[in-house]
Amino acid sequence: MLHYGRLTAGALCFFLMCACSGKYEPDRPIVAGSHKGMKMQGGPVVIHPGGYYNFETIALDANRDGTDDYKFSLGYWGSPGMGMKLHSSFSSLHDGALLFGTTTEDTLFVRTTRTFSFDPGMNMVVAYTLTKHDCMKRSVEYFPASHAPAFHPLWLNEGDLIGGTEDNFRPVAVSFVYSDSWPPSTTIINDTLWVNRSETRNDCRAVPLGQSVFVGLAMIENGKFKRGWIRFRLDGAEKITFEEMAFQR
Fold first, then answer.
1. CA 166, CA 39: separation in Å to the nearest integer?
2. pLDDT-based confidence at 40, cuts 50/70/90?
3. Going by C-beta distance under 8 Å and a sequence separation of 6 or more, which residues neighbour residue 69?
4. Could you tell me the CA-to-CA distances from 103 to 84, 100, 152, 163 in Å, in that order?
5. With the CA atoms of 246, 207, 172 and 228 taken in that order, what torsion angle do they form, in degrees rounded to the nearest 10?
6. Which residue, 199, 217, 182, 196, is CA-closest to 97?
7. Mean pLDDT of 44-57
8. Does the CA dihedral 247-154-45-69 come out positive or negative?
9. What is the CA 8 to chain-centroid distance, rounded?
10. C-alpha 134: how far from its chain's center?
């Protein structure tokens, strides 16, 4: 079943990580977009951002057992200091709601630039520092700052296989907002105003926009490892369309 509704601020934050158990059948992949042997649930259901800390959601019960398994969410969050920020995401709702993906060794790249100027109104030097964090080395000024393994869902096309091993299925939350910035921090030291600002860009595994995209899913039902898929569409981070879901009978 699918449910359209609203999510309050208290239900926004969560963390999911687990290992899968149960009967796994790696020799029986399914095909994204195929209806053969599948229980189908259709859309379309479209959501746009709700109000401040009032999130529009689409909750999906893949195996129709009365418990929601996956969720799309759109809304705004923030504070008076940071301003309003867009929240746009797709996530597992419990540790048994798995998504098809892969684990990679991700590198965080950083570029820092600093400029100095004189502000006659304040009669002091202004030192402006901008730090950019990125998922890729976009120019020679970026340097690798850290490395860490990360699990990423695979965004599929119709006809792609959803197979792999148990390591390819995990619960996960994915943000569709790929850039962010924070209000600058300021400090005055002697006759210098130090201004520090940071930006983040994380679009290396972004969902293609303006087209139907599939994501594989899996759950253990009656001791059997069953797969499925969800088809959806992003028209920018502020519009999500759920189109169709399939789960093995």
1. 22
2. very high
3. 60, 61, 62, 63, 92, 93, 94, 96, 97, 217, 219
4. 32, 10, 6, 15
5. 10
6. 217
7. 90
8. positive
9. 19
10. 16
